[in-house]
Amino acid sequence: MYSGSDQNEDPSVTAKFEGTERYVATDDLMVAVNAAVTLARPLLVKGEPGTGKTQLAEEIAAALGKPLHRWHIKSTTKAQHGLYEYDAVSRLRDSQLGEAKVHDIANYIVKGRMWEAFDSDVQAVLLIDEIDKADIEFPNDLLLELDRMEFFVHETRRLIKARHRPIVVITSNNEKELPDAFLRRCFFHFIRFPDADTMTRIVAVHFPDLKRELLSEALNAFYRVRDVPGLKKKPSTSELLDWLKLLLAEDVPPEALRADDPRKSLPPLYGALLKNEQDVHLFEQVMFLQRRQRS
Amino acid sequence: MLNRFFLTLRDAGIPVTLTEYLGLLAALDARVAVEDVDSFYYLARAALVKDEKHYDRYDRAFAAHFKGVEQAFAGFAKELPADWLRRTLERVLTEEEKAKVEALGGWDKLMETLAERLREQRGRHEGGSKWIGTGGTSPFGHGGFNPEGIRIGGQGGGRRAVKVWEKREFRNLDDTIELGTRNIKIALRKLRRFARDGAAEEFDLEGTIDSTARNAGLLDLRFVPERHNAVKVLLFLDVGGSMESHVRVCEELFSAARSEFKHLEYYYFHNFLYESVWRDGRHRNAVRTPTLEILRTYPPDYRVIFVGDASMSPYEIMQPGGSIEHWNDEAGAVWMQRLTTRYPKHVWLNPEPENRWDYTASIGITRKLLDERMYPLTLEGLDRAIRALRA
């Protein structure tokens, strides 16, 4: 599916997003991204952790040649932080030191990520990462800002309007339900865990020199781990890529990854895939049972 | 044509709104996806469906809408229009085959079996003689040898192409089906109510600025208590007997609840609540907690969740001495009433499917005792239960 990132010469014509050299986009993802870009509406992306949600915004920015503004959300983040903050503490300090700039309140207005994106000379990509981490009211507080792409700075009585409607990519890990009013304004895409074919392409993008044998054995081992029912944390794409990196660095031969080796039940360097001891234990047991059934 | 599609989606239970529909039309107008039906499928999904749990419903609705004929299955495989099926079958079957059907137990039996199989069967099936699928000898499914079979979804034999929406890969994201620990956690999280109480330990910037300004610029530090989840939950779990088959889902609910609530108290009971409950499965007969003690210990702001199938003999609820394990001086109903009056925020979660509740008398009685606040133990049911607990 990857067909080269076509960086359009003329910035006024919106290029189509088709994945990049480092990012394999599936058909459905491309349609969703292009719809969001064309209509200048926010794109909400959900999916298992490690399927490249955050990466997507970076790749859209890279593919379309636009600057990227990242806004990472924490549990304490307020909508206001993305717009601007009034740095009252500095002003207070300056007033006690008798500085001259204290008289203009505009000196103490600190721009947020959203303001920066609005202020950009060319259309920007704004990533609002892990929106579900914030308070439940957070998305509601951004409705108007995302809809109209403008907000009002009360301290200076100024209306800030986006010079170019930014492409907004919002990611969510589904920890909180998002309000309907917010969802109505977005396009939505759910990144599925890639199937074996897509996974092969993704790996090929990251490790072009990987030997075929090693890759197919590694993928087999990977899906074997993933398919064990009841794992607390299933390994994801990013973990697979880390693991492959380790395999390459250690120069592990493909034969070592086969499951039929009776002496070893765990794949080499499994620590990159299984992240807690219950899962390691569970996997060992399942493999043991399977081997016993076979013999 | 798209208007009708929009309505089909709404009928299928996907919460699409006019704004979203207009968004889709705008995207089509902007030529985002015009080349083929696949990209239209993706575009409409991105524009109209805002939650992956609705993807499966969308797939089914899409298939139904764009296939015309199979629209007759609009009941979405839950309820097949029996009359329609019968008429279709009568048309295609030969006399000999009809005799075979009679041998299977007649029409009604056949319809019953079909409905049952549809419920039991999960996932795709090919070959074989029991399940509904393709190419088998079972009378259900399509492309089989048994008469012509009843075609349920899918194309006739010979054509290979499987449409994206027919793969139904998002089936287990539908919230009425799958329930995992993580899903439960997310559902329970909605019950969170943050509050500040306890000792002051967090620096309050806003408060400090405000009070410093009022203090004419002299610094006045302010602190507030840390925010934490203030919801307290009392969980009663039915164990043993008919609950054996629901152990897994109850365990998941329990482990999710335990990690989600700081104040979670749990007790076990068998079939129904009487004068005592227990906490330790191994010493259930030795170490029991009197229910009266629970009523005294926990204040009424606790939210109470009962988990059980409520399937038993009505005597076990209504009669003194009705319990199957011991002699109870007062009927279960009396104890239930005490609990529900003391804890006005209560729900009962039932792992039995909701459509079977009407067939068990004791479920009906329990529902009455709880003012109909019984919900199925599915994500969607959990959602409703949480809403009832929040109200």
Please provide a brief summary of the model.
The complex is a heterodimer of chains A (295) and B (391). Chain A has twelve helices and nine strands.
Provide the descriptors you would attach to this structure in a database record.
heterodimer, A: 295 residues, alpha/beta, Rossmann fold, 2 domains, five-stranded parallel beta sheet, two-stranded antiparallel ribbon, 41% helix, disordered N terminus, B: 391 residues, 4 domains, 14% strand
Description of the molecule:
The complex is a heterodimer of chains A (295) and B (391). Chain A has helices spanning 27-39, 53-64, 79-83, 88-97, 113-119, 138-141, 143-148, 180-184, 196-206, 212-226, 237-250, 277-294; strands at 43-47, 68-72, 84-86, 109-111, 125-129, 150-153, 158-161, 167-172, 187-191. Chain A is an alpha/beta fold and 295 residues long. Helices cover 41% and strands 14% of the residues of chain B. Chain B has 16 helices and 11 strands. In chain B, the strands form 4 sheets. Chain B has a 5-stranded parallel sheet, with helices on one face. In chain B, strands 1-2 form a two-stranded parallel ribbon. The longest helix of chain B is centred in the first third of the chain and has 15 residues, at 106-120. Mean pLDDT of chain B is 72; it is low at 69-81 and 122-162. Classes of the chains: A alpha/beta (295), B alpha/beta (391). The interface between A and B is medium-sized, with 32 and 33 residues.
